[in-house]
TrEMBL record:
Residues 1-33 form the signal peptide. It is an enzyme of class 3 (hydrolase). One of its GO terms (molecular function) is serine-type D-Ala-D-Ala carboxypeptidase activity. It comes from Serinicoccus hydrothermalis. Residues 33-66 are annotated as: Disordered. This is D-alanyl-D-alanine carboxypeptidase. GO terms for biological process: peptidoglycan metabolic process; proteolysis. Keywords: Carboxypeptidase, Hydrolase, Protease, Signal. Its EC number is 3.4.16.4. Residues 43-60 have a biased composition (Polar residues).
Length: 502
C-alpha cells in the first residue's frame, strides 16, 4: 500500500539563503554555490554540459530565476538545526522504502544505505551499511578528509620563475598549481587565481633590472616538485583519451582541464611553457621558441641557490579542494592527495598515497577501515571497496564540528547544491525531486554499473541529516540514468520527511 505524502511547500529560489543560515548556525557543512557545473566521473550512458572554466563562490542565489522556480520550503533562520526533532527510525525507513525497493537500483543485496543524524551520528536507516561496495567518486570524500590533515586550508601553491645555471636560462618551477590563467590572475577566482601573464610580466621586470640573463633567453621547466606519473597505472587509457580525467600534474592551465570528449593536452606543463614564452615575448623580451607551437621546454632541475625572478600564488588549498570535489575533477583530487601525503612525510607513489589515506581516516577520524580497499584517491580505478557507513561517518565528521578543516572545505562548495551547482546542476530536475532542491548537498559517484550519492539534507522539521547511498549492480543501458534519479528521490523523501512517531 502506498503511503500518503504531504505536498511540499514551494517558495522562490532566493529562500535558499535562509536554509544556509540555519545549517551554518548548527555548525553543519553547507557548501556555497559554484558558478559552473562539470561532469561527474565516467558513466556508460550519460554526460553533463560543462564549460572550460570553473570557479567557486561564497554567495547563495539572491533572486528568483526561470531555471528552477520552485524549491523546498526553508526552515526558520531563527531556530538552529540542533533544536529540530530527530526523525523516528521506523517512520523514516517507511518514508524511503518504496524508492529503495526500485528495480532500477539493481540487485537487492547490492543496495547500500546509511542515514545518520548529522549532529549526533545516530543511525536512522541502514541497509548493508557495513558491506564493501564500489563507491565510485564518493571515494573523494575520504580523500578530502585525509588531504585537509596534510595541507593547511590557507596554504597556497607557488609557481616560481628562477634564473638557471646557464646564462640564458629562465626556469619555471612547478609548485602544485594546475589552475593557472593564461593572462592576469583573478584574485576572486579559484580557477585562474594566479596568471601566467603576471608571471611573465614580473620576469620581464626582473630581467630588465638586471636580475637574470641578458639578451635572448631560453625557457626551461623544473617539474621535480611531487613528481609522479601523469595517469594512474590502474586507470584505463579510455578515461584519459575521452576526457574523463586530465593529466595529473603539478603545473597546468585552468583551460586545459579535461572535459568529457575534450581531453587535456598530452603535456599540460609544456602548454604552460608555451604560453609563458609568448607572454614574455609580448613584454619585450627576446625568447627562443616564442610563437613556435612545436617548441618544447627542456626539463631541468633549478639550482638550489637560484635567484628568484617571479612568483604567483594559487587560491587557498581549501578552495582548490572544494572546487575539485564540486566538479569531481579526478586529476585535481589525485594531485592534491599526492601533495598532502608528501607534506605529511610520505611519498607520491600511488600505493603509498592510498595507504596514507586509509591510515589518516582511521587514526585522525577514528573510523574502522578494516577491509577497506582504496586503489586511488579519485575513485576511478577498479577495485576500490568502501562501506557506505564509512562514507556517512566521514560526512558526520564534516558536519558536527569535530573536524573544522573538513567542514570548511565542504562549506566552501565541496558539496554541490541539489539542482544548482557542480555535478548536481543537472540532477534533481523532476517534480518529485523538488523537496530536496536547494536544501540537499551531495557528492555524486558514477561508474559503469554504479551510482552513488552522499551528502547532507535538511528535513521538513529542520533537522540536518547525513546520507550515503550506493547501488553497484546496475543493469546496462538506461539503468544508470534511472538509478541516479531514484537516489535523488530518496534524498527528496528525506527532505520531505518530518518522520515523527504517530
Amino acid at each position: 500500500m502506498m503511503r500518503p505524502r504531504p505536498a511540499p511547500r514551494r517558495v522562490p529560489r532566493y529562500a535558499l539563503a535562509a536554509t544556509a543560515v540555519v545549517a551554518l548556525l548548527a555548525g553543519a557543512a553547507v557548501p556555497s554555490a559554484a558558478t559552473t557545473a562539470a561532469p561527474d566521473e565516467p558513466a556508460s550512458t550519460t554526460s553533463a554540459p560543462t564549460t572550460d572554466e570553473a570557479s567557486a563562490t561564497t554567495e547563495a542565489p539572491t533572486g528568483p530565476v526561470a531555471v528552477r522556480p520552485r524549491v523546498a520550503a526553508p526552515v526558520s533562520p531563527v531556530a538552529p538545526v540542533s533544536a529540530a526533532p530527530v526523525p523516528d527510525r521506523g517512520a523514516l525507513s517507511m518514508q524511503i522504502s518504496d524508492e529503495l525497493d526500485s528495480t532500477w537500483l539493481g540487485g537487492t543485496n547490492r543496495r547500500a544505505v546509511a542515514i545518520r543524524d548529522a549532529l549526533t551520528g545516530e543511525s536512522l536507516a541502514d541497509r548493508h551499511s557495513s558491506r564493501l561496495v564500489t563507491p565510485a567518486s564518493t571515494t573523494k570524500l575520504l580523500s578530502a578528509a585525509a588531504i585537509v590533515t596534510g595541507l593547511e586550508g590557507d596554504h597556497t601553491f607557488t609557481t616560481r620563475v628562477v634564473a638557471g645555471a646557464e646564462p640564458d636560462e629562465v626556469i619555471i618551477v612547478a609548485g602544485g598549481d594546475m589552475l593557472l590563467a593564461d593572462g592576469a590572475g583573478d584574485p576572486e577566482a579559484v580557477a585562474g587565481h594566479a596568471g601566467i601573464g603576471d608571471l611573465a610580466a614580473q620576469t620581464a621586470d626582473a630581467l630588465e633590472e638586471g636580475g637574470g640573463p641578458e639578451g635572448t633567453v631560453r625557457v626551461r621547466l623544473d617539474l621535480s616538485y611531487v613528481a609522479g606519473p601523469d595517469a594512474m597505472p590502474t586507470w584505463s587509457d579510455h578515461w584519459i583519451r575521452e576526457g574523463w580525467s586530465g593529466r595529473i600534474v603539478q603545473l597546468g592551465r585552468s583551460g586545459d582541464r579535461a572535459l568529457p570528449f575534450n581531453p587535456s593536452p598530452t603535456s599540460p606543463e609544456q602548454e604552460v611553457a608555451r604560453v609563458f614564452r609568448e607572454a614574455l615575448a609580448e613584454e619585450g623580451i627576446e625568447v627562443v621558441g616564442a610563437g613556435d607551437e612545436g617548441a618544447e621546454a627542456q626539463e631541468v632541475e633549478a639550482p638550489e641557490d637560484a635567484a628568484e625572478l617571479a612568483s604567483v600564488e594559487s587560491a587557498a588549498a581549501r578552495d582548490v579542494l572544494a572546487l575539485a570535489l564540486a566538479t569531481s575533477d579526478n586529476a585535481m583530487v589525485e594531485q592534491l592527495a599526492r601533495q598532502a601525503a608528501v607534506a605529511d612525510g610520505g611519498s607520491a607513489e600511488q600505493e603509498d598515497v592510498t595507504a596514507w589515506i586509509r591510515q589518516t581516516v582511521s587514526e585522525d577520524y577514528g573510523l574502522d577501515m578494516d577491509g577497506v580497499q582504496i586503489v586511488d584517491a579519485s575513485g576511478l580505478s577498479d577495485g576500490t571497496q568502501i562501506p557506505v557507513g564509512v562514507v556517512a561517518d566521514v560526512l558526520v565528521a564534516g558536519a558536527d564540528g569535530s573536524h573544522p578543516a573538513l567542514q570548511k572545505v565542504l562549506a566552501a562548495g565541496g558539496l554541490p547544491i541539489a539542482g544548482y551547482t557542480g555535478t548536481l546542476a543537472t540532477r534533481f530536475h523532476l517534480d518529485r525531486h523538488d523537496p530536496a532542491v536547494g536544501v540537499a548537498r551531495a557528492k555524486t559517484g558514477t561508474l559503469p554499473g554504479v551510482s552513488s550519492l552522499a551528502g547532507t539534507v535538511v528535513t521538513r522539521d529542520g533537522r540536518l541529516l547525513v546520507y550515503a547511498l550506493t547501488a553497484d549492480d546496475l543493469d546496462e543501458g538506461s539503468a544508470a540514468i534511472e538509478a541516479a534519479s531514484v537516489l535523488d528521490e530518496v534524498v527528496a523523501e528525506l527532505a520531505r520527511c518530518g518522520c515523527q512517531p504517530e
